[in-house]
């Protein structure tokens, strides 16, 4: 289905370094990267360009830009965001999205995951020693940092700083004209190995979805679309939040099938029951 066909990674931040080998080795696709893309027009992490669309819309726009500029059979686009974890507010998380776009059939397969692994951070500094302490926390210089004149829409910004010599020079230039300097981690993938690793992990998950074929029409992307919860507690037999049934669906022919949510046992341990362990 994919062997010998071509793929373009819609990126300007070198994500093809980790995604390209996965799709070449696991799907047999041939990577072509002979285009120049400016994906920052859809929004940037450092606040220069505001993000006005949802992650899925951004994925689609990146695929369309790449599809217009290349003859590749398939396009892969990536989008990420950072902020407090939805369930653990004091912990930062990295949310990543990947889209596999079939140009001929105009079909999409999307993978999404929330990662705990991130060095996302920011601070305001008035002295050099504060900058050094910040760098110790964010794995500098392996992970680059950004200096800004303000948090939003900065008039002055220096990105991709990855050594202490350049960082000190730039900090001194900033601090001469303003009382404090804003420093933050550079979350662009080519400057952030932790994020690049997350993208690679999600790439493997995307390939697993692509190679999951519908048992009825053989279309790729056959996956769990929804789940039915209510697996009973082993002690009180009351329904819990654990999954009873998974519902798989093909986006092409709409074929559905179900599978058990728990293949090991038909009950839930009482420690996960809101009645027995509220």
Short description:
With 278 residues, this protein is α+β, with helices and mostly antiparallel strands.
Describe the structure.
This protein is of the alpha+beta class and 278 residues long. It has five helices and twelve strands. It has a five-stranded mixed β-sheet, sandwiched between helices. Helix 1 (16-27) links the parallel strand 1 and strand 2 (30-31). Helix 1 (16-27) runs parallel beside helix 5. The longest helix is centred in the last third of the chain and has 18 residues, at 193-210. The protein is flat.
Radius of gyration: 23 Å
Mean pLDDT: 92
Q: Got a strand count?
A: 12
* Series of H and E elements: EHEHEEEEHEEHEHEEE
User: Roughly what fraction of the amino acids lie in strands?
Assistant: 25-35%
Q: What does the overall shape look like?
A: flat
Give the helix tally. Answer: 5
Helical content band:
10-25%
Q: What is the distance, rounded to the nearest whole angstrom, between the alpha carbons of the first and last residues?
A: 50 Å
Uncertain residue segments: none
Helix-strand makeup class: alpha+beta
The largest beta-sheet arranges its strands as: 2-1-3-4-5
Assembly of the depicted chains: single chain
Sheet with the most strands, sense and barrel status: 5 strands, mixed
